[in-house]
Amino acid sequence: MTTAHPRPDLAAYADAARMTQPELVGALREVLGAKLVAYLGRVKETRAVRQWADGTRTIANPEDVERLRITYRAARLIAERDSAAVAQAWFQGLNPILDDRSPALLLRDGDLADVGPQVLAAARQFAAVG
């Protein structure tokens, strides 16, 4: 018998920290789709996302990697509770917990030190109450 981890966000954190760039991007692409991953990774083409996932191209900016790790943590929390489609909608929709701003926009354009914890807290709250 398996029991649920009391803090699923800790499991998502541990996995995100251990994943290689190709593993991280591949997992994100499965949940959020290539277009949303490209947006969050600050690239214009989904080809870059495919290359990242294939390991034929690396993400040069460490901040972009960290942004994708935070995105993975939030996406996993929501997708495990609901579905990938719900996670996609959550990232793109206006979120009342985030002052009616979309998590994707905040992560893409905001200071990660500020918006990262806000987005993760909003994801935890959404996963807890739906």
The computed structural class is mainly alpha
| Count of distinct structural domains | 1
Helical fraction equals over 70%
How can the largest sheet be summarized?
A: none
Count of individual beta strands = 0
Low-confidence stretches: none
Query: What is the radius of gyration computed over CA atoms, rounded to a whole number of angstroms?
Result: 14 Å
What's the overall average pLDDT, rounded? 93
Detailed description of the structure:
Helices cover 72% and strands 0% of the residues. It is mostly helical. The protein has one domain (8-129). Helix 2 (21-32) packs across helix 4, helix 2 crosses helix 5 and helix 5 runs parallel beside helix 8 (112-129). The model has no long low-confidence stretch (mean pLDDT 93). This is DUF2384 domain-containing protein. It comes from Mycolicibacterium austroafricanum (Mycobacterium austroafricanum).
Task: Tag the structure with descriptive keywords.
130 residues; mainly alpha; 0% strand; DUF2384 domain-containing protein
Secondary structure layout:
Layout: H1 8-18, H2 21-32, H3 34-40, H4 46-54, H5 62-81, H6 84-92, H7 103-109, H8 112-129
Gist of the model:
Helices cover 72% and strands 0% of the residues. The chain is mostly helical and 130 residues long.
